[in-house]
Amino acid sequence: EAPVDPKNPKAGKWSFKPRGRLQIDTASVSAPSSIGSKSLGLASEFRRAYLGVEGTIPGNFGYRIEADIANSTIDPTDVYMNYTGIKNVVITLGQHKPFESMEDTESDLFTSFMERGSFNTAFGFERRLGLSAQYQKGMILAQVGVFTDNVTDLNTDSDNSYSIDGRFALQPRLLGGQMHIGGSAHYHDLNEGYATVRYRARPFTHTTDVRFVDTKAISALSETNYGLELAWTGGPLHFTAESQWMEVNRPGGIADPTFNGGYAEAGLFLTKGDTLPYRMNEGAPGRIKPKNPVEKGGLGAVQANLRYDWLDLNDAGVVGGRQQLVGASLLWVPTDYVRFLLDYGHLWVNDAAVLAGTDRSYNADVVGMRAQFDF
Amino acid sequence: EAPVDPKNPKAGKWSFKPRGRLQIDTASVSAPSSIGSKSLGLASEFRRAYLGVEGTIPGNFGYRIEADIANSTIDPTDVYMNYTGIKNVVITLGQHKPFESMEDTESDLFTSFMERGSFNTAFGFERRLGLSAQYQKGMILAQVGVFTDNVTDLNTDSDNSYSIDGRFALQPRLLGGQMHIGGSAHYHDLNEGYATVRYRARPFTHTTDVRFVDTKAISALSETNYGLELAWTGGPLHFTAESQWMEVNRPGGIADPTFNGGYAEAGLFLTKGDTLPYRMNEGAPGRIKPKNPVEKGGLGAVQANLRYDWLDLNDAGVVGGRQQLVGASLLWVPTDYVRFLLDYGHLWVNDAAVLAGTDRSYNADVVGMRAQFDF
Amino acid sequence: EAPVDPKNPKAGKWSFKPRGRLQIDTASVSAPSSIGSKSLGLASEFRRAYLGVEGTIPGNFGYRIEADIANSTIDPTDVYMNYTGIKNVVITLGQHKPFESMEDTESDLFTSFMERGSFNTAFGFERRLGLSAQYQKGMILAQVGVFTDNVTDLNTDSDNSYSIDGRFALQPRLLGGQMHIGGSAHYHDLNEGYATVRYRARPFTHTTDVRFVDTKAISALSETNYGLELAWTGGPLHFTAESQWMEVNRPGGIADPTFNGGYAEAGLFLTKGDTLPYRMNEGAPGRIKPKNPVEKGGLGAVQANLRYDWLDLNDAGVVGGRQQLVGASLLWVPTDYVRFLLDYGHLWVNDAAVLAGTDRSYNADVVGMRAQFDF
Predict the structure, then answer these.
(1) I need a surface site. Which of B122, B173, C24, C345 has the fewest CB within 10 A?
(2) Cβ contacts from A onto B, under 8 A
(3) SS3 A297
(4) Measured in whole angstroms, how far is the alpha carbon of residue B262 from the centre of its chain?
């Protein structure tokens, strides 16, 4: 009995594909001038500049090695090997995403706004070194893994943290479109006698390092978080919504806070025949492929999106602040692998960690642009 | 009306090309021993070690992502996307060169000496993030762009500088060869309440970090620089010359200095049939392709070059020093993508920033060797 | 008379091959708890994550540019150009290994244990910038080169060290297998008025930064080291053994110590028909290619190995400690380019540099696992 699936044509094959992506961002945050930061004006940056490779190795093995050089440093992103020899199952070992949410699982190449929902960064989602298994057959998707730290953090010679992470989704066809109902649950043991966590989020753009909401470092033993996911895409329309709760287990008699965030989004293609694809094996939206791309004389795809996003970092004595956002974005996808994005957001901040004079409650506006390609 | 040029065969095509270069340098500076630096003796280094990719994307888009790893860090070099769908025009967005001079535009793979004319480094020319357009048709070349900082500097969370940069060249056939008459002009606003600039140059080799001439940090609001370019190449001969003026707009009542540098070069091939190519779409010399390369049993190309180079960093109360150089180089190009280079320079320094005992005026000699390949 | 060998089909050819490797390690050191380090428990890391390219250029030139990104930094590994136009000879210029030992020359992809013999790291073997020539014909292998520092160290602007390095091996067929009898000798001038060296080794795993044996920094002018190498591989069996002596030339009247280390190893394939290959042009073991790999329905190759390893850093007044190890490893090679490795070691340490309470002599146990692929 051979461990190799004879129906898998990749079993005996080598393949090799270079990978790259570039996102060039320009954005400006308009906030009360009494904040007095040099960081909130018009600013530009490489949001991401990835280079890497992926491929397959005979015996149903595969790999990806990729890194982000946007900050003039090397930040390893997906760096793993996998095994696809069991039907409907992918086993992955190395640095990859711990299935934290629908939007975190979705590639940053495909999101409807320049940044993901603010809870994704606030709660510290990142790729980490781990071993995971994924099962997908028909409308069922199940992902589970054990993870330790991000490889950059593993370089510090201390005790490694560990986590158990699971995500599940039902993906039926519904009302002439694709439905997604999902959820995830996570337990992360910091594995240090006395450790800290910090939750914070930028104001809808990565070009600034100012965070209006920020719990600052708080003592912690472990984190438990869980999320709910909902999506539907069909024809020119799509809807997505998520919410996630992060519970911090604090040492001794300190009360354990639970922080919450989430978003709800709706999108509409203005160009005829275009739709937002869905990836069954990721449980998340995929790449927009314009029906009439510019290389065939068309205009490409144009999509408008609206989003409400909230993040509440106040609980059990911790006052990290509350942030709400209403955002609008306009995407132009001239061809499958090139994208331009304009977005605008209005923010309401309460109990802010950054004072505007003596004021902890204020509004801000953010305008951003992105040019992007990948291969 | 399709935005895609039907005569452009790349409009609907993907292409992918890996890029790399390695320059291994050994050099020695012979200067008065009273300078007492450990850095001036025989030293070796990787001058450049680039790895990257470039290619095209359907819809007349193109890209390049490349970085220098020679210093055991990641220094992004050309990282951009471009659009070639308009006839004779290239639009580029990302990090690229702001058309500072003829020799700065020329690839470092092709220069006649190990280092470019000293004003190029002294005046801080570097790739920066920007948006530019280039028009070239027949003998006309025009380049114009708006730029902000180098992406590495953009990581610091402060106000971004911006500049407007333009370069123009006439490129007629003349006297049986290729003529180049050009110029460039640049305005760079540092966009900080109180910023500094610093102009300095190494002594004809990059292996040392000692700079005999150096203005040290001086307060500045903005920079205006402009340059003149002249070149002719035909048969075994070529001549190139440039000069550039850098005017510093200093705050308050401080006088605004103008610094100047330049060079004049002549070269001669010793091997029959070889010539220095010229690139119309860059307005600069190109790759030497030996008529009789070693892979066909030939010797490759051998070229001898002479250069006079000057840099004057004394003006309006700033005493950065004056440096003059007479240099000679010998190139051996066994095959198109491999090159060996030996160069020698004699330097005269006045008002030096580095003292030899109590002496601010002295001479130095520099000998250097380079082995290089690229793909 | 053409300098190009007409029998060398690569003389006029371009080639390009991407390179990559990933080693994911998990290990635990069980040592006296009185040592009190957070670094000795269960820990994981990317041991190596290489990306690079190699190829040939017309005219019998070749190149390799590769770097390790495992530590979220860029560490250039092999970065060189070479020339193969002289029969049986390879001339290499750039950063490569200075032929320090058999196991140091062997790729880390092929070693029988997760780490090489402890003298290899203790004595500071690393790739350095140099020019070398290698001759191999039939059973004769001779390697000689001059080297300066590692390119990362060359970035510091001080006097460069230099070394002369030679290695020689006889590689006859013997007793139905492949024999290797070799030796190497090295002189390394630190080329500084007053420099230091430091010899130390991790306890059989790279996941910890604790070194039980460590000379700490000692003043030195130069190093002279020499080694002996012995190996035999045939059928399912192989034996390897090496020893190396490192003599430190210390300034003034300080006595010159000689440190010593080495190992002896035996291995046996448990799967039928498998053997440990030997590379004549490297003078070291090569890649295991399972006779029945998983992609053909087989089990792959399974090999068991035993090793005794010693390191003595006590001499002439320097007390760096003594470390002995008995190790066992089990390799599973499902297909040529994928490998899983489990190893165990028991360590005896005397005169340790790290105290267990007040004790300088103690034992430790190490268990480690590796998953690896390369292309």
Answers:
(1) B173
(2) 110
(3) coil
(4) 13
User: Which phi-psi region, left, alpha or beta, contains residue A120 (left: φ > 0; alpha: ψ -120 to 50)?
Assistant: alpha
Q: Among partner residues A3, A63, A95, which is closest to C294 by beta-carbon distance?
A: A3
Write the burial class of residue A175 (CB in 10 Å: 0-12 exposed, 13-18 middle, 19+ buried). Answer: exposed
Could you tell me which residues come within 8 angstroms of residue A213 by beta carbon, excluding any fewer than 6 positions away?
Answer: A122, A200, A201, A311, A313, A320, A321, A322, A323, A349, A351, A352, A353
Say whether residue A256 is in contact with chain B using an 8 A CB cutoff: no
Joined tokens for residue C319: 């007390």
Q: Where are the alpha helices (DSSP H) in B143-203?
A: 151-154
C-alpha distances in Å from residue B177, one per residue of B12, B172, B240, B275, B284:
37, 9, 13, 10, 14
Q: With b meaning 16 or more CB within 10 Å and e meaning fewer, what string describes C354-374?
A: bebeeebebebebbbebbbbb
Q: What is the pLDDT of residue C38?
A: 75
| CATH 2.60.40.1120 for domain C88-374 | no
- The torsion angle over the Cα atoms of residues C85, C17, B111 and B280, rounded to 10 degrees, is 120
* pLDDT over 60 (residue A63): yes
| Interchain CB distance below 8 Å, B20 and C76 | no
Mean pLDDT of chain B: 95
Ramachandran bin of A256, using left for φ above 0, alpha for ψ from -120 to 50, beta for the remaining angles: beta
Distance from CA of A221 to the nearest CA of B (A): 32
Q: Write down the residue that tokens 């089909």 correspond to.
A: C9
Q: Tell me which chains share at least 3 CB pairs under 8 Å with chain C.
A: A, B
**Nearest CB to A79 within list C22, C41, C44:** C22
- C335 to chain A: which residues are within 8 Å by CB? 57-59, 61
In DSSP notation, A237-287 reads EEEEEEEEEEEEE-STT----EEEEEEEEEEEESSTT----EETTTTEE--
The answer to whether B280 faces chain A, any CB pair under 8 Å, is: no
The alpha carbon dihedral of A114, A116, A122, A126 has a sign of negative
Q: What is the DSSP letter of B34?
A: G
With bands split at pLDDT 50, 70 and 90, how would you rate the model's confidence at B2?
A: very low
Q: Which residue from A minimizes the CA distance to B157?
A: A39
Dihedral angle, C-alpha C310, C316, C319, C325, nearest 10 °: 0
Cβ contact, residue pair C59, B295, below 8 Å: yes
Compute CA A217 distance to the chain's CA centroid, rounded to the nearest angstrom: 23
Mutate to test the interface with A, among B51, B77, B151 (most CBs of A within 10 A): B151
Q: What is the predicted pLDDT for the residue at C3?
A: 42
**Architecture of the A34-46+87-374 domain:** Beta Barrel (2.40)
Structure tokens at B74: 């990641």
Burial zone of A218 (CB within 10 Å; 0-12 exposed, 13-18 middle, 19+ buried):
middle
- Would the pLDDT of B295 be above 90? yes
| Residues contacting B36, CB < 8 A, separation 6+ | none
The domain spans of chain A are 34-46+87-374
Q: What is the interface pTM, i.e. ipTM, of the complex?
A: 0.94
**DSSP-based three-state secondary structure for B120:** helix
Classify each residue of A275-294 as buried b or exposed e, where b means 16 or more C-beta atoms within 10 Å of its C-beta.
Answer: bbebbbebbbbbebebeebb
Contact between residue C110 and residue C277 where contact means Cβ atoms under 8 Å apart: no
CATH architecture of B27-46+108-124+155-374: Beta Barrel (2.40)
| Tokens linked to C78 | 């092999």
Closest by CA to C17, choosing from C68, C75, C56, is C56
Mean pLDDT, range A88-98, rounded to an integer: 98
Question: What is d(CA A44, CA B149) in angstroms, rounded to the nearest whole number?
Answer: 9
Kindly give the residue spans of alpha helices, DSSP state H, lying in B136-220: 151-154
Residue of C48, C71, C294 to mutate, interface with A, max A Cβ within 10 Å: C294
